Amino acid sequence: MMHMTFYWGKKVTILFDSWKTDSWTSYFISLLACFLVSVFYQYMEDRRLRFKLLSLKTKKSPPSSTESASLNSPLLFSKFSGGGRKWAAPRFAGAILFGVNSAIGYLLMLAIMSFNAGVFIAVVVGLAIGYLLFRGGDEDLVVVEDNSCACS
User: Fold this and answer.
1) Residue ranges per domain, the chain?
2) CA dihedral 68, 52, 126, 39 (to 10 degrees)
3) Distance (Å, rounded) from C-alpha 130 to C-alpha 152?
4) What is the longest distance spanned by two Cα atoms in the chain?
5) Any alpha helices (H) in 1-152, and if so which ranges?
6) Residues 94-105: pLDDT tens digits?
7) In sequence order, which residues have a C-beta less than 8 Å from that of residue 29 and are 6 or more positions away?
């Protein structure tokens, strides 16, 4: 039976039926895996934001009339109009990084939905440590974060 409230214990199923813990050793290894994936999530988010900043810095051409009009009236103009520059390789790479990071974030959320308090603590502490290590000095990044995942 699946728990619907937080519980403490070594018996937990995380994400898949095959990822079940029944001993303290397997439980702590699973918590370590959740912790490391959470830290990796913050690392990937940092890489994605830095990549976005780098791609913004390399765009030095003055905005065309369509782009300047879209800045003034953003609901009337599409981001997809006006040349092939919008579909450059950095944009695709950024989209791939966003997709990977979103997938990791949602998997972490689903792991927390096992309602095991140890898994919850491992993910939250992993996110905090990852933020401290990789994103604590983000003052130089002046990029609007567009991550829709609640795990960021």
Assistant:
1) 12-57+84-138
2) 170
3) 11
4) 65
5) 24-58, 65-72, 89-112, 117-130
6) 889 999 999 999
7) none
